[in-house]
């Protein structure tokens, strides 16, 4: 704010309200990222202000310094949290406006030739896009170099990625699977086992649809003998010891009920468009229903005829005749299904939730040669391949965090401290960490924000009637496209994605609040910037 030309009291007021907000204590003690996020957001804005001040002396040493520092700080913002992408928008909009002004042939400082404008454009692309992206890649290279060991987040990554980690349990415990082995298959996302029991599907479902009344095939979350299936070849083989490979067409026999897994053109209990999974007797499976018992093993990112292994071979089980993939979800079956998970045939084979893996081979002799482990060498994986896989995993799992809890709060409640957030509780001792901002700072800021909005509205109405109500003390919060056009026109308040502001001395300041949904810290900056502005006017 000092760089933007505000008075010393205004800067002290804004800084004090931010510094003395006790919300930062809870964030830093719990090692949360919001404080770091706000720091780099502020540094990004500061660097851009310094760069903007040098707009009339381009391509000098200081001009390049503040341009590159802006890009580096913005890279640190998005490296801290993905919501930092809004900082790129908040600074990117005035950059575009600045470039548009430079393109104007009637600009006061004189027109720029197309080659000169190209230099300005190239410099900004390098400083605000290329440098941040390279810095972002650099931090992931540091991440991959330091975090080279196995950890609790391994399950989010593919087996190929996990093989690049030392002491990874998945690859250490993997065992090759042979035909006629008894295996237990587990769904990667829901962690339920492929399960069956003697109970039948009801003749008629609640919506009136008819089932096959076949034996139920469900997903069961606990280890049980009803989870064991024997993997059998689809063609005759002499003897045992033949390994199962990627792309093989196989059959599965349920050990406890001595029945064979199949899927057919009958609607599943919950999804009329998906196929029902059931089992049939050995007689039917070997004769008229033989084709319905055929399944193809497709290992994710697997090579042709790659060996099928426990733990490390994540696969899709695709029904050979109908080309549907075995799938499950989190909605439990009714009481007739004992609240277990539904198993059905998904026509969308490409869906990532179709993935399963073999957890164990029960009954494998302890002296089996397959259990003897050789010293495993950590495999290498190209950096960009690891980078893109990690980006996909972060986006996917972040978007999946949609469930609410009783201790959450809504963005509209934050400015007024209507409700805090319980970050941690201990039931036995009733201890808890309750996150709440400083009521004095927040309530004053929210109140003055309302007064500020009223002043802006009254000033606009007065100007429409030919009266300059604020006289020489007027201040401005301008829409981005108005800032460079006229710094002394009456303001329009912005309360959406970004707060773009300009002092009477010219430099542009951009603070971002992420629509009041990024974090409480960014909202603090948003409100206290307004507080400082109003205190300067009053």
Structure, explained:
Helix content is 35%, strand content 18%. By secondary structure, the chain is an alpha+beta fold. The chain has two domains: 8-146 and 407-537, no CATH class; 172-372, Trefoil (Acidic Fibroblast Growth Factor, subunit A) (Trefoil), CATH 2.80.10. The strands form three sheets. Strands 1, 2, 3, 4, 5, 6, 7, 8, 9, 10, 11 and 12 form a twelve-stranded antiparallel beta sheet that branches. Strands 13-14 form a two-stranded antiparallel ribbon. It is elongated, with a radius of gyration of 32 Å. Mean pLDDT is 82; it is low at 474-538.
Structural class by sheet pairing and helices = alpha+beta
Distance between the termini: 17 Å
The stretches of 5 or more residues where confidence is low (pLDDT under 50) are 474-538
Multimerization status: single chain
Largest sheet: 12 strands, antiparallel
List the helices and strands and how they pair.
Layout: H1 8-19, H2 23-29, H3 34-53, H4 61-80, H5 85-102, H6 114-146, H7 159-162, H8 169-173, E1 182-187, E2 193-200, E3 215-220, E4 228-233, E5 249-254, E6 259-267, E7 275-281, H9 282-286, E8 295-299, E9 315-319, E10 325-332, E11 341-346, E12 356-360, H10 383-399, E13 421-426, E14 431-435, H11 439-464, H12 480-483, E15 498-502, E16 508-512, H13 520-537
Antiparallel strand pairs: 1-4, 1-12, 2-3, 3-11, 4-5, 5-6, 5-8, 6-7, 7-11, 8-9, 10-11, 13-14, 15-16
Helix pairs in contact: 1-13, 3-4, 3-13, 4-6, 5-6, 11-13
């Amino acid at each position: 704010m000092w760089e933007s030309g505000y008075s010393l009291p205004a800067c002290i007021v804004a800084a004090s309200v931010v510094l003395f907000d006790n919300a930062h204590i809870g964030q830093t003690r719990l090692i949360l990222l919001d404080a770091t996020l706000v720091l780099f957001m502020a540094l990004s804005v500061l660097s851009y202000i310094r760069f903007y001040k040098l707009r009339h002396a381009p391509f000098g040493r200081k001009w390049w310094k503040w341009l590159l520092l802006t890009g580096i700080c913005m890279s640190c913002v998005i490296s801290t949290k993905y919501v930092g992408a809004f900082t790129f928008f908040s600074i990117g909009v005035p950059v575009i406006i600045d470039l548009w002004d430079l393109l104007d042939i009637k600009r006061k400082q004189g027109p720029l030739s197309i080659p000169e404008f190209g230099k300005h454009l190239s410099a900004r692309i390098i400083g605000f896009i290329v440098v941040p992206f390279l810095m972002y890649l650099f931090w992931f290279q540091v991440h991959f170099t330091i975090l080279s060991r196995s950890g609790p987040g391994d399950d989010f990554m593919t087996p190929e990625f996990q093989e690049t980690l030392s002491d990874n349990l998945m690859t250490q415990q993997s065992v090759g699977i042979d035909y006629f082995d008894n295996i237990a298959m587990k769904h990667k996302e829901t962690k339920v086992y492929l399960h069956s029991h003697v109970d039948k599907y009801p003749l008629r479902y609640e919506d009136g649809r008819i089932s096959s009344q076949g034996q139920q095939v469900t997903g069961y979350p606990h280890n049980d003998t009803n989870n064991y299936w024997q993997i059998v070849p689809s063609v005759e083989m002499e003897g045992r010891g033949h390994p199962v490979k990627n792309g093989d067409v196989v059959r599965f026999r349920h050990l406890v009920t001595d029945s064979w897994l199949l899927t057919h053109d009958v609607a599943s209990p919950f999804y009329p468009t998906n196929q029902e999974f059931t089992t049939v007797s050995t007689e039917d499976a070997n004769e008229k229903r033989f084709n319905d018992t055929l399944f193809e093993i497709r290992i994710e990112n697997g090579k042709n005829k790659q060996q099928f292994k426990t733990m490390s071979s994540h696969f899709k089980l695709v029904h050979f005749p109908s080309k549907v993939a075995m799938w499950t979800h989190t909605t439990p079956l009714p009481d007739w299904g004992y609240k277990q998970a539904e198993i059905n045939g998904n026509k969308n084979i490409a869906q990532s939730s179709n993935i399963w893996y073999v957890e164990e081979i029960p009954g494998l002799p302890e002296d089996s040669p397959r259990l003897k482990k050789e010293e495993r060498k950590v495999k290498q994986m190209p950096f960009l391949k690891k980078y893109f896989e990690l980006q996909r995993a972060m986006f996917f799992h972040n978007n999946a965090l949609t469930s609410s809890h009783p201790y959450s709060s809504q963005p509209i409640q934050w400015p007024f401290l209507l409700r805090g957030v319980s970050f941690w509780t201990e039931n036995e001792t009733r201890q808890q960490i309750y996150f709440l901002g400083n009521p004095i700072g927040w309530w004053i800021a929210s109140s003055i924000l309302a007064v500020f909005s009223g002043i802006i509205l009254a000033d606009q109405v007065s100007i429409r009637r030919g009266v300059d109500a604020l006289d020489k003390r007027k201040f401005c919060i301008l829409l981005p496209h108005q800032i460079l056009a006229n710094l002394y026109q009456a303001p329009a308040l912005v309360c959406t994605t970004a707060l773009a502001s300009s002092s009477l001395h010219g430099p542009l300041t951009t603070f971002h609040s992420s629509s009041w949904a990024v974090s409480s810290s960014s909202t603090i900056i948003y409100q206290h910037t307004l507080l400082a502005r109003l205190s300067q006017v009053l």
